Amino acid sequence: MASIIIVGTQWGDEGKGKIVDYLADKCEYIVRSHGGSNAGHTVMVNNVKYKLRLLPSGILHKDKICVIGNGVVIEPKVFLSEIDDLMKKNVNISNLKISDRAHIIMPYHKILDEMQEADLGENKLGTTKNGIGPCYMDKASRLGIRICDIINKETFKKKLKFNVELKNKLLKKLYNHEGVDYDNLLKEYLEYADRLKPYIADTSIILNKAVKENKNILFEGAQATMLDLDYGTYPFVTSSNPSAGGACTGSGIGPSKIDNVIGVVKAYSTRVGEGPFPSELFDDVGQFIRDKGGEYGTVTGRARRCGWLDACVVKYASYVNGLDSIALTRLDILDELDKLKICIAYKYEGKILEGYPADLEILSKAEPVYEEFDGWKTSIKDIREYDKLPENAKKYLKRLSEIIETDISIVSVGAEREETIIVKDIF
Ligand code: GDP
Ligand code: IMO
Ligand code: MG
Q1: CA distances (Å), 89 to each of 53, 82, 143, 385, in order?
Q2: Of 240, 263, 296, 344, which one has the fewest beta carbons inside 10 Å?
Q3: What sign for the dihedral angle of Cα 148, 154, 157, 161?
Q4: Is 310 tagged catalytic?
């Protein structure tokens, strides 16, 4: 039995969905534990593209139990439309469970997200405008509405009334917005409640039972370490804890039950939204990576900022998450490059920085120190064994593993399930 956490190590979009879909074959349970529809996990199976925002990627395997844990913020409309889309593609969703403790994203959260971003002007965070921040704000302020509330009509009415009054004060007085209508919202959300009911459960009980029965459980990270509210490049982060600890608090499984933490690392760096990014490329190589990698957001369609692989970021992610190994994805995107670089350190005021700077002033002035590698200049897409990779690709991987002081367990060489090389046993 194994409980495995899959965590993003950079700024998101590392290919967590692909790795989870691959490993899900050997697992009975797949769990999302934080974030919400800000996530966009693209999974390719037999040339069909699935774009998942709230549902765990394990849903694409028949008979897996997929769980949306208490730490997730759920927008019912997105959840239901995702289910409808998958049903149209004949995907079995009868084994899907959502936590009765998860918080609900309401339309006023999305409006507040937009208003707050507009208000920040040039200091904006570049959020996905899905209402994530305002929903987690309500959770922390103890004003939030949870899944268990929506199925209790009287409680829901009371909580909604109170929240609508409060949010309308804010929207009207602070943002000059017309506000939201209580009756319309009540009607809309009670309809959602009827459709959500069959999926609602105390998911912590289900998962702890699974642990006792020695089942394999996969925790599917969303977002990533550098977007973590505590460890990321604050304030340019999301409002939850996507790092490994968040998988426990967001699902109701204790840390002693976790066996393995795998960090997903993209072979180069990308970032959507604002915030410092020391190894960002503004030249032809950056544009080549963006074009070849199709680096445009799944959720917002925004062009992703691209740069060299930053080992300072991955090493930091390795210790804050306690990584046992990494899964390196998208190595194939670098196939054609003559030279590759890895950022191995940051220099600030002439000195090499230790650890990862919290102060964004320092980070934005930090100069990346690079190590250069020769490219392998051949397609690796069809390779399935580590030993058969070109020597220059192996050199790049070996050196990366040394710099980040972490083993490599998986190398992904394409978006499809089978385009995967297992370097080290995981189960
Ligand atoms: P996530 O948010 O971490 O799940 O990542 P996204 O789905 O947002 O972005 C990763 C993209 O890369 C998706 O389109 C995947 O299908 C694709 N992908 C994953 N692994 C590989 C790989 O090894 N090579 C290539 N070419 N594409 C990959
Ligand atoms: P996956 O799971 C990439 C980024 C947003 C923004 C910041 C805050 O697909 O890797 P939010 O809407 O969460 O308040 O936005 O976080 N962000 C992501 N970037 N991948 C994601 O998820 C992201 N989820 C949030 O772009 O910079
Ligand atoms: Mg994504």
Answers
A1: 16, 11, 38, 33
A2: 296
A3: negative
A4: no
Give the distance (Å) from ligand 3 centre to CA of residue 89. 21
Report whether residue 16 contacts ligand 1, using a CB cutoff of 6 Å: yes
Residues 6+ apart with CB under 8 A from 336: 288, 292, 375, 377
Amino acid at position 53, single letter? R
Ligand 1 atom 8 nearest Cα: 13
- Name the closest-CA residue to atom 25, ligand 1: 414
Q: How many helices (H) and strands (E) does the chain have?
A: 13, 20
**How far apart (Å, rounded) are the C-alpha atoms in residues 18 and 41?**
8
CATH class of segment(s) 103-198: mainly alpha
Cross-strand pairs, 41 = 52
Alpha carbon distance 22, 16 (integer Å)? 10
Q: In angstroms, how far is the first alpha carbon of the chain from the final one?
A: 8
Domain ranges of the chain: 3-91+202-422, 103-198
Q: Return the CATH number of the domain spanning residue range 3-91+202-422.
A: 3.90.170.10
Instruction: Give the SS3 label for residue 354.
Output: coil
- Among 10, 45, 4, 50, which residue's Cα sits nearest to residue 27? 4
**Averages of pLDDT over each 10 residues, the chain, 427 residues:** 94 97 97 97 94 95 96 98 95 95 98 96 94 98 97 96 98 96 98 97 98 97 98 97 98 97 98 91 96 84 92 98 98 98 97 95 96 98 98 98 98 97 94
Residue 309 to residue 368: CA distance in whole angstroms:
11
In this structure, the residue with its CA closest to atom 17 of ligand 1 is: 415
